[in-house]
């Protein structure tokens, strides 16, 4: 009997070697431990938690083996029967993945059994999400302390994750962790575990346990398979914090950014940043809307959106959501008054000669192009025996007027500003001859309308006569 058994093994080994040359199946497939049990085509997919096998006798018997380490025995209390000649699928999902499991296979045509050991996965797992980097640190061990000590940012494909109702996905993509920022927008709960090995072929495993076990009176070889997926860790992904509160004064063109914030400008030409990232604001600072366009070197667009967020705190908190502030850079006088077709008519003071020509503010009327009606009427008058500039607003917008004593001034700085409401008239007094006159549209805080930029209306050229 022993001679026949050895002869049979040799025949099958030779056949398997020939088959291996054509199909890359390892010669271990001819091991007598499997052949004598009438089992073939054994494969294990530990991710799917399935074992597949074919019984040459038409009936596959499978059971969970119980090992008595003191006696060195393995027993099966109940067998499951699978009939037919095709490969049968055995469900392994009920197995406890943190203990060693033994799957015993047999055929009704053979007295011997085959044993596959599925080693225990680690009993504990530790996983923590860092919202500032959007990375998960994971570690496993035989207890919680060991798992926590082993936790580190993932650099291999040994772990996977899923959402509450999603499929398992690799936590490592190519050379870096997958992008988890999409879960931070609204917050989420992820589950992380150590992966099982997909597609292990039990009959091609060269590793065998050194366990000396017998089934009945027959010694059995124990093949070592791969571990099932490990225990799951529940990882909370906090939602990004709300954006900061940004104080905006539309009537004074003032933006107050809180400290420890980041900001950028978005226009039709794209996102404007500094060196590829948002600009930093470390202390409470005051800015103007026009400064934002200047800082980000935006010259082709006058409108945009300022985005502001609270900076991330390393290891503690992610950057906040963006607070978005629409900016419309009004051109003041030019955009809102001198619209296409409108004209500014000037003429010298009646009966008097002008010392300065062409640039002065004289008798002037700004006319609307559609109907020819006047928007502003400007003239020189005497107020308390002193020269003054009278401006009447016949339009529908509110304007602001300011002066600077220098004729070459390009903008009013720390100067008095007079508001000119629709249908009203103001007197500009106290400005010496050759002073620069500026005008802009007024802002509206309630309507979130930005104040316009000051533009030069002209130079004071009070009426005067001289003797040739």
Describe this structure in words.
With 468 residues, the chain is mainly beta. Helices cover 9% and strands 40% of the residues. The strands form 10 sheets. Strands 3, 4, 5, 7, 8 and 19 form a 6-stranded mixed sheet that branches. Strands 23, 24, 25, 27 and 28 form a 5-stranded antiparallel sheet that branches. A 5-stranded antiparallel sheet has the order 29-31-32-33-36, with no helix packed on it. The N terminus is likely disordered.
Task: Please write out the topology.
Layout: H1 2-23, H2 32-35, E1 39-45, E2 50-55, E3 59-68, E4 73-76, E5 80-83, E6 88-91, E7 101-107, E8 114-118, E9 124-130, E10 135-141, H3 144-150, E11 152-153, E12 159-162, E13 169-170, E14 172-173, E15 176-177, E16 188-194, E17 213-215, E18 218-220, E19 222-224, E20 233-237, E21 247-249, E22 254-257, E23 261-267, E24 270-272, E25 279-281, E26 285-287, H4 289-295, E27 303-310, E28 323-328, H5 333-336, E29 343-347, E30 360-361, E31 363-367, E32 374-383, E33 386-393, E34 399-404, E35 417-420, E36 425-428, E37 436-441, E38 455-460
Parallel strand pairs: 8-19, 30-38
Antiparallel strand pairs: 1-2, 2-6, 3-4, 3-5, 3-7, 7-8, 9-10, 10-11, 12-13, 12-16, 14-15, 16-20, 17-18, 21-22, 22-26, 23-24, 23-25, 23-27, 27-28, 29-31, 31-32, 32-33, 33-36, 34-35, 34-37, 37-38
């Amino acid at each position: 009997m022993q001679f026949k058994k050895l002869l049979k093994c040799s025949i099958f080994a030779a056949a398997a070697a020939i088959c291996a040359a054509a199909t890359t199946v390892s010669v271990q497939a001819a091991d007598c431990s499997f052949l004598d049990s009438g089992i073939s085509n054994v494969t294990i997919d530990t991710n799917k938690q399935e074992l597949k096998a074919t019984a040459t006798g038409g009936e596959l018997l499978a059971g969970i083996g119980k090992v008595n380490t003191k006696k060195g025995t393995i027993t099966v209390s109940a067998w499951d029967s699978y009939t037919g000649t095709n490969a049968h699928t055995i469900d392994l999902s009920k197995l406890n993945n943190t203990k060693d499991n033994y799957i015993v296979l047999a055929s009704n045509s053979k007295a011997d059994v085959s044993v596959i050991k599925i080693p225990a996965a680690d009993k504990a797992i530790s996983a923590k999400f860092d919202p500032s980097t959007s990375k998960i640190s994971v570690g496993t061990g035989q207890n919680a302390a060991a798992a926590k000590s082993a936790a580190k940012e993932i650099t291999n494909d040994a772990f996977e994750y899923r959402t509450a109702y999603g499929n398992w996905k690799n936590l490592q993509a190519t050379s870096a962790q997958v992008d988890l920022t999409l879960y931070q927008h609204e917050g989420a709960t992820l589950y992380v575990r150590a992966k099982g090995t997909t597609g292990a072929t039990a009959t091609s495993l060269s590793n065998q346990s050194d366990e000396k076990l017998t089934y009945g009176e027959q010694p059995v070889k124990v093949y070592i398979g791969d571990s099932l997926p490990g225990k799951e860790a529940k990882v909370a992904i906090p939602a990004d914090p709300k954006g900061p509160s940004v104080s905006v004064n539309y009537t004074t063109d003032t933006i107050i950014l809180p400290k420890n914030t980041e900001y950028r400008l978005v226009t039709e030409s794209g996102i404007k940043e500094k060196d590829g990232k948002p600009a930093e604001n470390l202390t409470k600072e005051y800015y103007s809307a026009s400064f934002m366009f200047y800082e980000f070197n935006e010259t082709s667009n006058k409108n945009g959106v300022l985005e502001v967020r609270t900076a991330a705190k390393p290891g503690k908190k992610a950057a906040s959501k963006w607070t978005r502030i629409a900016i419309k850079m009004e051109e003041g006088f030019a955009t809102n008054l001198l619209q296409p077709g409108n004209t500014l008519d000037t003429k010298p003071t009646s009966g008097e000669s002008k010392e300065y020509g062409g640039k002065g503010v004289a008798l002037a009327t700004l006319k609307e192009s559609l109907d020819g009606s006047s928007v502003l009427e400007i003239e020189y008058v005497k107020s308390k025996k002193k020269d003054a500039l009278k401006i009447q607003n016949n339009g529908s917008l509110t304007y602001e007027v300011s002066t600077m004593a220098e004729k070459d001034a390009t903008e009013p700085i720390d100067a008095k500003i007079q508001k000119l409401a629709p249908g009203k008239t103001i007197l500009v007094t106290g400005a010496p001859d050759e002073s620069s006159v500026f005008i802009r549209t007024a802002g509206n805080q309630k309507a979130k309308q930005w104040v316009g930029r000051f533009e030069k209306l002209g130079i004071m050229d009070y009426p005067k006569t001289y003797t040739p």
